[in-house]
Amino acid sequence: MKIIKKVLDRIADYRHNKIYRPLEIDNSEVVRLKRGLGKTETTLFNKKIEITNFFWYVHGLNEIFLEKTYQFNSKKENPLILDCGANIGLSAIFFKRLYPKARVIAFEADTDIAKILKSNLHSFGFDDVEIVPKAVWTENTVLSFKSDGSVGGQISEEGEGTTKIDAVRLKDYLTSEIDFLKIDIEGVEYDVLIDCAENLVNVNNIFIEYHSFLKNEQKLDEILLILKKAGFKYYIKEAWNNMPVPYIDPRTSHYDLQLNIFGYRL
Q: At 15, is the pLDDT very low, low, confident or very high (cuts 50, 70, 90)?
């Protein structure tokens, strides 16, 4: 059995090497990251990058750089991109590699992670990205926020484990043409989209990660109607397989549905 395991590990290592070679990541580093070993600093495209969680970092590499979830076409050399929920900067790095002259505004609610975001962008030489260390919301205000130290921090009711953060009204940024709007804000996308609805006509491409809380009313139909009224066609993919067998799976997950929604114009 030990010999079989070693053979399977070698096959897996070979596959990892082949898959991640375009990202200029050494095979042994991929294996280390997959197994959650070592430091919170690694390399991407031969640049130093700080990460907060091994699992979600590797997931982000797959989704953003290999599957190219956020890739879009623009006739401009300098498209305007709003990255809401920028986290440690993988999406912003992708956008700047796609369009080096792009104007990117990166919003990150978790102030500690916003510092990592700034450091990672500096490592890549993308100091022209405008970092807004605030949550996007329906008004300029102060909110309660619960951090998980990685990708799942979210606006929350005030209580144990929450901190106060600044928030900005996203609608105020949508008064002129936006080439790409990414919204991955852990469950408050509906509130923000309702507030922004009339300004979405200024957006050419929109990406939304929809989060359905198990105990809350689902809002997918209303979000899709907002997009339709703004003139978007949409395409939907599962972001996470929360309930592989929905009729019998225990209802214990924080989210019961997560979807990637792609809004585009013909």
A: low
